[in-house]
Amino acid sequence: MAGLVNVNRSNPDVFYRYKMPKLLAKVEGKGNGIKTVIVNMIDVAKALYRPATYPTKYFGCELGAQTQFDIKHDRYIVNGSHNSEKLQELLDGFIRKFVLCPECENPETVYSVHAKSGIIYNSCQACGYAGKLDMTHKVTTFMLRNPPASPQEGAASKKKSVEKKDDGEEGSEENGTTTDDPVEVAEEIKAYNDDEVEWGEDTSEEAQQKRMLELSAAAADLALTVDLEKTPQERADLFFKFVKTKKAESGDSKLAPSYRAILSEAERLEMKDKAVLILAEVLLTADIVRDLNEHRNLFLSFTYENEKAQKYLMGAFEKLVGVEYHDQLIAKTAKILKALYDLDLVDEETFLEWGKKVSRKHVSKEIGQEIHSKAEPFLKWLKEAEEETEEEDSDDEEEGEEEVEVAFTHSEKVGLQEKPTTNGTSATTAAAANDVDDDDEIDLDDI
Question: Of the chain's two ends, which shows fewer C-beta atoms within 10 Å, N or C?
């Protein structure tokens, strides 16, 4: 389990009061698309009182790799494969250069960014040190362009920074340009040149309550990080309880306002693919078609262009039809599959792949065979629809290539001419005459 470590890891004192979460990294993708997601970058950045983009960009500079900031989803990414230990050591270098005071080695430092002069001043709240940062490192260029905001400037400074951007200014001590980073550094640090700032601890009741809320929030953030260390089953249980709670809170009202929170929780627990199994267990009943229509947007947020999630949804369908509500639903198998298709929750390719083989992953082989037998009318309809589409595409290509010619004659106008068929009628007319309905076509609405 990821615990807390000293901000200054060269200090072995177990009672050292400056702590931060141990950095967690996860490698995603393959080949040229491989990347490392720093799972708890937000938590680490909060402990350092720095925007999360700063250490992430520092990693990129040190590793010679590109970095990505998906601030909306709190994802901070370094291209390439890098393990947690390697990044933790790099973080130590960032802390030594840009967090610890050069005099007392405490991390109680704040920045004052002067973009026009290209200088970042550093001051220590613990010992009173004031000086310049070493501006030779590449990451300082990024810091100059994306300085933390001063708390006195607030929303007005953000508005001014947007206006200034039109003039080509990326940041200055006057306008206090801010980044979009969600870490609220401005609320935690003091303005460097504010003579009225008092560094003593505020002991008022309001201040004490505020500090308690901050501690509670920090504890909550740490708990979120710890959840990623749990087993897949434990995380599935957490997600199950979360969805059950959201459903209970909504009561008779719609669950839709909680859709975004449910998706975010699944992504946080890193189980977006399998989440549909739990959603189906909590939200789907014997009236499955109605339930799918009601919660379409929620399921779609998981299955859209996600083949794995679609396969798990097919597994949930098998459990509901074959086990949970067998007597009520087995005869309606084809109709339910058609609903999944019409609602765009499962793609045609996934259906056809599922129909090729009976799996024992979610239900017994006997039940799986029964479900596939009942699904045959839908699968047959799907295959015939696909074949008809392919034939139409082929006919269109042939018509375009064979039935139309460009005539260049002296007796006729230059243009597109239809070739006559052997009986004297045009090919288009003949095709229309032969366009008759197939009496054997399957009507799924009658199933």
Answer: N
Domain 227-385 has CATH 3.40.720.10: no
The pTM of this model reads: 0.44
CA distances from 271 to 246, 248, 262, 349 (A): 18, 22, 11, 23
Going by pLDDT thresholds of 50, 70 and 90, the confidence category of residue 184 is: very low
The rounded distance, in Å, linking the Cα atoms of 271 and 222 is: 19
- What is the rounded CA–CA span in Å between residue 180 and residue 40? 18
DSSP conformation letters of 333-394: HHHHHHHHHHTTSS-HHHHHHHHH----SSS-HHHHHHHHHHHHHHHHHHHHHHHHHHHHHH
Length in residues, the chain: 447
Q: How far apart are CA 265 and CA 224, in angstroms?
A: 10
pLDDT in tens, 147-157: 876 544 433 43
Phi and psi at 437, nearest 5°, equal -75, 150
Query: What are the extents of the domains in the chain?
Result: 4-187, 227-385
Query: Which among 161, 155, 162 is positioned nearest to 173, based on CA atoms?
Result: 161
DSSP per position, 136-169: TSTHHHHHHHSPPPPTTTHHHHHHHHHHHHTTT-
Helical residues (DSSP H) of 114-255, grouped into ranges:
139-145, 154-165, 205-227, 232-250
Take residue 382 and report the two structure tokens written for it. 């799907």
Could you tell me which CATH number the domain at 4-187 has?
3.30.30.170
Beta bridge partners of 76: 38, 69
Task: Give me the long-range contacts of 128-136 (CB less than 8 A, separation at least 24).
Answer: 129/101, 129/102, 129/103, 129/104, 131/102, 133/97, 133/98, 134/97
Q: Which amino acid does the sequence have at 430? A: A
Asked which of 128-137, 182-191, 226-235 is least confident by mean pLDDT, the reply is 182-191
Q: Are 23 and 92 within 8 A, CB to CB?
A: no
Distance (Å, rounded) from C-alpha 185 to C-alpha 446? Answer: 62
**Is-contact 293 257, C-beta < 8 A?**
no
Token match 């097919």: residue? 314
Q: What is the pLDDT of residue 116?
A: 79
Rounded Cα gap, residues 67 and 424, in angstroms: 68
The secondary element (H helix, E strand) that includes residue 27 is strand 25-28
Range name among 83-87, 220-224, 290-294, 317-321 with the lowest pLDDT average: 220-224
- Token look-up 């229509």 returns 293
